[in-house]
Amino acid sequence: MTNRASIPAPGEPRGRLLAFLSALCFFLSAVEYMIPKPLPFMRLGIANLPLLLAVDLLPFGPFLALAAIKVLGMSLVTGSLFSYVALFSLAGTLSAALVMYGTRALFRSRVTSVGISVLGAVSSNAVQVLLASFVVFGRAARIIAPVFLAMGLATGLALGFFAERFSASSRWYARAREDARG
Amino acid sequence: MTTATANAATRAAAAVGAAAENGDGRGPAPAEPGSGYRDKPRRFRLTLVDTAAILAAVSAVFLSSLGAVDAAGEPRVVISDGQGGEWIYPLDGDREIQVPGPLGSTTVHIHDGSVAIETSPCPNQTCVAAGSIERPGQWVACLPNQVFVRVEGGSDDESGVDTGTW
Fold first, then answer.
1. Which of B32, B121, B127, B131 is in Cβ range 3.0-4.6 Å of B103 for a Cys bridge?
2. Closest to B99 (Cα-Cα) out of B114, B111, B89, B90
3. 11-70 in B: which are within 8 Å (CB) of A?
4. How many CB atoms lie within 10 A of CB A138?
5. Whole-number mean pLDDT of chain B?
6. Does A26 score more than 60 pLDDT?
C-alpha cells in the first residue's frame, strides 16, 4: 500500500510520532466503542483525531500507513477484522484520509482543521453508504444516507473544532510540528 | 462581564494578527525566545473554504434526504435480505418473521405498530440494541447478516431526515 522506504524507522522522531499516533488510534477506537450512543449505528469518529492531527505532521506515506493502522485498530477492537464489515471501515477511512490530505494540499492555510474534518467525515460516511448500496442493501441504502451524512457533518464539525483548539494550545503538538518541519 | 468580552475580543484580534504574521494562518506561532508556548487556546475564524465545506456538507444532507423515503400509502414494514429479496408487511398486528442471511436467521418482530429486530446471529448485536422503530423513514439494519428493516408510508409531513433518530 505504501512505499516501504517512506515509512520512518521506529527510532527517529517521525517514527516515534507515527507509533504514538497509531497507539492513539487504538486507544480512541476502544474509547469510541465503549461510549454509549443514542443510536447504536452512530459513530463519533474520535478515532479520526490522530489522522486529523497527522495531516500537518506526517508526510503522505506515513500518513497512509497511519490510516491503515487505524482500520486495523478499529477492526480489532470491534472484532470485525475478518468479516466483510472491515471493508466498510477500510473504505471509509481511506477516503477520509485522502480527502483530508488532499484538502490541506489544495488549500493550505486557507482551510482549518474544521473544514478538513467536515469534508473527511462526510466523504467517509458517503463512501460507506455507497458501498452499502453496492454490496448489500441496494436502493434501500439511500434511506440511511441523510442520517449518515448529517452524522458526518455533526461529528466532523465537533472533531474539527476540538483539533483546532488542541493544536493551538498543545505543547506536544507544537513540538511535533517543529519536528515535522525538520 | 463587558471587560471580559472586550479582553477576549482583543486577544482574538491579536491572535488573528499573529496568525497572519506566522504566514500559514494556523497552528501555533513559533515561540519567541523566553516566552514559552501559549497556555491559552487561541480563538480562530473559519475561513472561506471552511464555510464552503460546511455548506457543501449541509447541501449533501439536504439533497440525499429528497425522496429518500416512499411516504405514500399505508404504513408498512419493508424487509430486505441483501440478496435482492424484499418482503412487505403491514405495520399493525402481531407477527414474527424469520429472515435468512449469510450468518443465519434474523428474527424480526412486528408488534402494535412498531417493528424491531429481536434476535440476530451477528456478533455485534447492534441491530438488536437499536430497539424498535415505528415511524416512516426509520430503519434498523444488520450489516453482518445483511438484513435491512424500514418503515414506509403513512406519512404526509415527514422528510427523509427523521427527527426520531436525533
1. B121
2. B89
3. 23-28, 31, 37-42, 44, 46-54, 56-58, 60-61, 64-65, 68-69
4. 16
5. 76
6. yes
pLDDT at B55: 97
Q: Sheet with B105-111: list strands edge to edge.
A: B94-100, B105-111, B114-119, B132-133
CATH code (residue A54): 1.10.1760.20
- As for the ipTM of the complex, it is 0.90
Chain A residue with CA closest to B152: the answer is A143
Strand order in the sheet with B147-152: B86-90, B76-80, B147-152, B139-142
- pLDDT value at residue B38: 53
> Do the Cβ atoms of A142 and B64 come within 8 Å?
yes
Summarised one tens digit per residue, pLDDT across range A67-110 is: 999 999 999 988 888 888 899 999 999 999 999 999 999 999 99
Give per-residue pLDDT as tens, B21-59: 444 444 445 544 444 455 555 568 899 999 999 999 999
A87 touches chain B (CB under 8 A): no
Distance from CA of A131 to the nearest CA of B (A): 11
Inter-chain CB proximity A115 and B144 less than 8 Å? no
When divided into structural domains, chain A yields a total of 1
Domain that holds residue A66: 13-180
Domains within chain B, CATH numbers bracketed: 3-72 (no CATH), 76-156 (2.60.320.10)
- Full 3-state SS string of A59-111: CHHHHHHHHHHHHHHHHHHHCCCCCCHHHHHHHHHHHHHHHHHHHHHHHHHHC
How confident is the model at residue B154, as a pLDDT?
Answer: 74
What per-residue confidence (pLDDT) applies to A165?
A: 94
